[in-house]
What we know:
heterodimer, A: alpha/beta, eight-stranded mixed β-sheet, four-stranded antiparallel β-sheet, B: mainly alpha, globular
Amino acid sequence: MSNKEKNKRIRAKTYIAQLLVYTLTIGTLFIAGLIIPLRPEISERENRKLAEFPKFTFSSLFDGSYFRGIGDWYSDTFPGREMFLELNDKIKSFYKIGTVKIDLGGDIGTEEIIIENNGVVSDEVPTGPANLGNEDDYNWEIEDDPVINESQLINGMVYVGDTAYETVGFNETQVNKYITVVNKQAENLNGIANVYCLVIPKHIGITTSLDFQKTVGSTDQEQVLSYIYGALNSNVNKVQIFKTLRQHKSEYLYFRTDHHWTALGAYYAYSEFTKTKGITTHPLSKYTEVKFEGFLGTLYNGCKDATAKANMKANPDYVMAYRPNANAELVFTQTNGQKLSWPIVADGNTYSTGNKYLAFIGGDQPFTEITNPDITDGSSIVVIKESFGNAFVPFLVENYHKVYVVDYRHYGKSISEFVKANGVQDVLYINNISAVSTSSLVNFMYNTL
Amino acid sequence: MVFVSLPFLLMFFPLCMIFYIFAKDIKAKNIVLLVFSLTFYAWGEPKYVILLLLMTVVDWFAAICIEKYAATKKFYLIAATIINLGIIGVFKYGTFFIKNTQNLFGFPENIPNIALPIGISFYTFQLLSYVIDVYRGDVAAQKKFYIVLLYASLFHQCIAGPIVRYKDVEAQLLVRSTNLQKINGGINRFCVGLAKKAVFANMCGKLVEEFIISDANLLSETAVATVSSKTAVSLWLGMLMYALQIYLDFSAYSDMAIGMGKMIGIDYKENFDYPYISRSVTEFWRRWHISLGSFFRDYVYIPLGGNRKGLPRTYANLFVVWALTGFWHGASWNYVLWGLYFFVFLALEKSFLGKKLEKVKGLSNLYLLIIVLFGWVLFKFEDTQTMFTVLKGMFGLNSNGFIDLETKVLFAKYGLFMIFAVFATLPITKILIAKLKKLSAKNSVAMAVWSAGTVVSPAILIFISFINIVGNSFNPFLYFQF
């Protein structure tokens, strides 16, 4: 056989083999895509429910949303998705050409830094008094599919060593709306209940220098807080915690792999609240300490940088919680109206690695009622919160007969009506500094006035 | 539906090919393609299929009449042209025209938001070229409606080009065959296009968002504030990434179309020929979106007289062509500006610059790249204020630094990728593989390498593309607004 014929044969065989390989590759993925039971329903790393197969309606068929929905479901729930996302991140780590290190000063020294920005530009914090405007001038409408999941509302991330920091932004309009809400609630309940406001700074503002924050594009949180407190009316009781937290900044006040504060951080806030109100600040020893090791939270799960993720995994957080020793009982009401009894601080050791923060008061429930029979003075408080409040509430149980907890994102009713109907004495708005700049959250707060 | 998505790659396209292979004869195969194409089109926007069908009916009918009634053929040509351009004028440019009328005359008060049907710029031009070619006698009118509809709606190129001329594909629409070598070529082309888009273009797009601004932010009131906070290096790197993104994105879609065509025996013409190696703007437009350039040449420039009516008229003709070319890209003045920007350089090159550029290779490459890069700034920013802010920022006039920490971090993290993306615009791989294939005829080691590489590459390209597609919910097609 001539060389030419030999080559022809080899090429023909190559083409056949290639066709086979191509068909097998596509074919395998095609079949995998058809195995419905393998499809995941939630995404741990994105902390959300994945797309569902759309319901058939004639209108959705004609406007294209039915088929588009099928396409979305097909992609969003593809078998092995989380695994492929991890693989994708690992591959991306090969795109590196070097690393940038930043000098954090002090005993932290120089560390490699990774910044991920979501491109949102903060407003300047006004130096003068707030220009609040009229309540009716603002848009308080809640959208069809509002984003209320805090891990989906992140402005930007900074990873330094094994610590993940959220950067904090400032949105003047939304913050003005927040101030309007709190002031309005104080008016609604004037003479009926005491309204308190406590805005929680985030990790980056407490443990890093202002220079660092400015360099990575995080706003001056102390300035934001003084702006807010300066604009709240005199009948709002202001609980300021920034300076106290900074004094304790070398303690374990915030998680490194999760966007929440620790129960210790919440305790310092509790001590400021009790000081402001003039009630007993119970020492930590009044509570039973419990520890849940091996916590890798929202910032770990959502981390797209393979190196940063590996650093966090090598040094996970732990949850230190403080159980009230009183004979208190917690009952929460779910969205479907069902009531459930639940421990105030559950055993986080039985919770998965990513979920240990949920050990506090049963997670984010629409409405929770904690009764402490050991206290008989009829004292009561409504705590209006997103998820930061969960670590804070257990401390109050030793001060109040009734602690009501409202997650304003899920409550759906009027808080002032509840306060009036139940003779509640204190109302505490405890909100983190990013939430007050977020329109969907502020709108929910308004709609539960 | 978009090509580079799991539903298309793993559901739609395999199913289409399965039905296609098992279809008995050419007519059945064509029906399979037609059904899948209309489904593909209707997937995203069912109601606009009617527009596509309507335009096809009009043009199919007009072509038949042009052929049949020689005396009144001009009437049918003009009627079809008016209807075609009228439809695209309303749906694509309606809001633009109304907005400008309002700016000039104060009315109408309310500007309706007319949605842009997918692919309208591509299929309108395809059908128009068909009618004109029948009028010119370049091709016979096709009596079977379904063939004309197949030509207009074939999912390979209906949404994203290339702009295919009926006369170029008629023979293969009616009779076609394929062989192993063609299939191999098709698979290669398809997989390369897939990887180009999924691995490179999408990542470039992400970097544009990081360095400059996200697509969502660009449309909001905070756009100017965002871009004015970017350092000069950030803006330059971002525009570099944009230049890469738009090429890799668009050429990838053409690659995939050409690849899918080859698999079943249809040969589409090349639409991109490594445009960034050009040494002049003239050459660039012979390598970039070739099917659009040749459309405007054959159906606007030449009918206007081309370069046969004297120099001033030539420049006037070019002016019109380039204003229209820009305008085709989007219903906004910045696109017209972009087109005319190139007109200026084309005119300069035609008169004296072209000859000078030929003598200074290297410098002429640099000249072209800088011109095109600034062209992309005009292209990307529809809002004038944002555009100016970016241009100022690129020259450091926004009182930001030269570079900042974030830019350094981004470059450190993705630098190697950015270098690879630049390489993807060069024909290096193509030349190397061609050399390898040639060598393999004489050298058995080369043959082994070529053979192994050919067999394995689809699997590798598909797998890395798949991982990237799963990983990126971000998957825009920049030319989708057309």
